[in-house]
Each structure stands twice: as C-alpha cells, then as structure tokens.
Amino acid sequence: MFSLDDNLADLAALISSSTAVITRYLEENRLPQPSFRPDAPGALPEVPEVQGARMALIEAAAKIQHLATGADDFLWQQSLVLKHDQAVIDVFNQFDVWDAVSLNQPATYASIAAKTGLSEPNLRRLMRHAMTIGLFTETAPGSEQVVHTASSYVCVRRPLWKAWIGHNIEEVAASSINLTKALRTYGDSQEPAQCAMGLTFFPDFTPEQTFFDWLSADANGGEKGWRVGRFGQAMSSMASLGLARIDHINAGFDWDSLGKATVVDIGGSIGHTAIELASKHPDLTLIIQDFASLEPQHAALVPSNLRSRISFQAHDFFTPQTVHGADVYFLKHILHDWSDHYALRILRNLIPALKPGARVIIMDGVVPPRDAVPLTVERLLTSLDLQMMTVCNSKERMAVDWMALFKEADERFDLKAIVQPPGSAAALIEVIWKG
C-alpha cells in the first residue's frame, strides 16, 4: 500500500538492500543476474529469500518512480501513455512482429516490415515507442539493426503468451473503456451479459447469456469456436507465472491422502491441471469437463502415459452433474467468473451427484485483508477483480464471502480449510459434503 509517509531516501535504501539480497543469492549459487538480453532467465528463483526481496524491490521501485514523476505528471502520463503501450503490444501481436526478428541475427526495419505486412514508416514509429518500455532495441542508437530484448522474446519462447495478449487486449481492454457506461446502465445487476464486455461485443444478447456464449458463437476473424481455443491457450499460458504456477495445486491440499480416487475437473479446459495432478499423484483418475470444442486440443496435449487416467467429457456446469460418486469435484478459477446468483446454481448442480464425505475443492482467489500481501500481489488481485467485473459481471471473493456462498448453497456444505500455497495468488478451499 502507498503510505503518506513514503519518501525518496527510505525507498532508495530499501531498493538497495533488496537488490543486495537478490544479487548475493544469485552470486552464491552461480546463477545469472537479471538482464534485458533475450537469453536471460525469465524469472528469479522461487525461493522465499529471493521472492521476498523481489516483492519489496518491485514495491519500492513503483513508489519511488511515482514520487520522482510527481503528482501533476503522474495522472497526465497515466492517461496519455499507457493506452499506447497496450496499442503497440497489440499491433506487434496481431502482426506477429515477435517472430519477425530472430534470436541470433539483427533485423532491419525493412525486413521486419516485409515479414509482417506493416509499412516501414508505421513500423518505425511503433518500434520507437516499444523500445521505451523494453520491447526490442537497436544494436546501437541509430544502427538500424533491431534485436530482441528479454521481454520481446517472450512470445517467441512461450507462444501461448500470444493468446494471453490477444484475449486481454483485443477483448478485455477493448471492453474496459465501456466500464463506466456499464456501471451507469446496469448498476448492481448480477446478470452476466450486463457488463462492459456485453456492451462492447454482445449488446444484443439476453441478460443471462455470457462471455463464454460469445466465445463459442463469434466467427469474426475465423470459424466459430476460434475464440474458445484462444481463450483456452490464454488460460494455459498463466501456468508459467510464479504467482499462477500450476504446481501450486500440489501444496494446497494433500492429494495423496485420498488414495485411489476419482477427481472431476469441472471447467478444466484442455487439461493442464489434470496432467499436473495425474503426473504427481499416480492413484488419481481425472475426468475433465468443458466445452466440446476443446476436446481436440485436449487429445493432442495429454501424454500417452497418462491417457489411461485422464479423460475428457463435454459438460455444462449449469446442468446437473453427470459423474456420480466421485471423490473430488474440483473447480479451478471457475466461480470467480460468476456472480453469486450463478455461482449458487453451479454449486447446487453438484448436490445430486455427491456422496457423503465427497469433497468440493475450489482453487480461486481469496482476497486478503488490506496490507496482508505485498503491493504486487494486491495489484494482481484487484486487477483480477476488475477483470471479472468487466468481462463476466462477477468478482473475486474474500474468505467471508466464500463461507457465506457455501452456506447459502446448502447447509450441508462444510468449509473445512482455506490454504494459500506460498507464492500463489490463489488459495485452495476444501469443502466436505456432509450428506
């Protein structure tokens, strides 16, 4: 949190001490230092000592930049500059400028323009702005030789990030400009179409239709369903982020304590989470439920050695659960897509399939009290909350919200534990069905 007492000298000292912790650890362990070179590591080591210093460094750097910018310039720059940062990233993503520059060979502006279809004058203007935020650089100022930086090379190294950028800028950012209009028009509506995304992309939908209906139905730019595929890839890309790393799922619940068990992964997309669970816990059998259109991607993704324990099933979680008697019904980042009105429907549709002692395990954001987490995590959580408001007319929930939701769904849901794995932005919420 920003404090009225923050000052340049104290923040500079914190930056220095935090930097010393990180560099000392890297030196002692003979690990490379962070750099802008494209072959630099994409993240710092996931150890508490380093990550604690990293969080402190990011927070102090953000605050000192804010103070150095000054109050007058801050809002002026925020409203002028940030939209153009996103616009450049959007252009580079849609024209695939990322792949127009190789890792080991500088590229001329003319060659990049020829590969992408952008005119050279427009490319130069876009590239000049991109270089101010560390995307690409020249071998020397005025050299006309463009090379990758670590950040511009990410989409070459991790192609799924193109889907993440496409979803967030082409769909979410385009809707965010209508958030004010949506709030004025719909107020506290809990209907999924009555949000900024609905106003922008599907204004003719009925109130109960959703962003996900639009993903399935929209054919602009390709055949119907192409947006569903991209959205699945975008969600899969999050697994590489430290705060959203897929293996956090193993630290929030003792899966091996289940013994031989069946887990239904509701809304499990193409199967990254199921693969993680199956590979780490050999007694688990996984059933993924999601859009039928995702099944081909699922089939291509699952390794041959896990296919006997992972299956895919088309299912709509607004209809009664079709798998009866499973040991765990797992919902990862599902309920935050829905207002309380619809989240209650999802939970109640599980009830006919639940056996006494069955678990419902939710992996989702649990918004902490103010100042309980570093500023970086706080900004991620508030951004996700506004993402849900913009896209789905839904929200992220605090612990008391989760308790109230399950109690309202049915008194027989017993919330047993909320566990936040170290370094994870999401918690695992364990609920027992008392029958």
Automatic annotation (TrEMBL):
It comes from the Eukaryota. One of its GO terms (molecular function) is O-methyltransferase activity. The keyword rRNA-binding does not apply. Residues 261-409 form the O-methyltransferase C-terminal domain. InterPro entries: COMT-like, COMT_C, COMT_dimerisation, SAM-dependent_MTases_sf, WH-like_DNA-bd_sf, WH_DNA-bd_sf. GO terms for biological process: methylation. SUPFAM superfamilies: S-adenosyl-L-methionine-dependent methyltransferases (SSF53335), Winged helix' DNA-binding domain (SSF46785). Keywords: Methyltransferase, S-adenosyl-L-methionine, Transferase. Residues 93-152 form the O-methyltransferase dimerisation domain. This is S-adenosyl-L-methionine-dependent methyltransferase. The lineage of its organism: Eukaryota, Fungi, Dikarya, Ascomycota, Pezizomycotina.
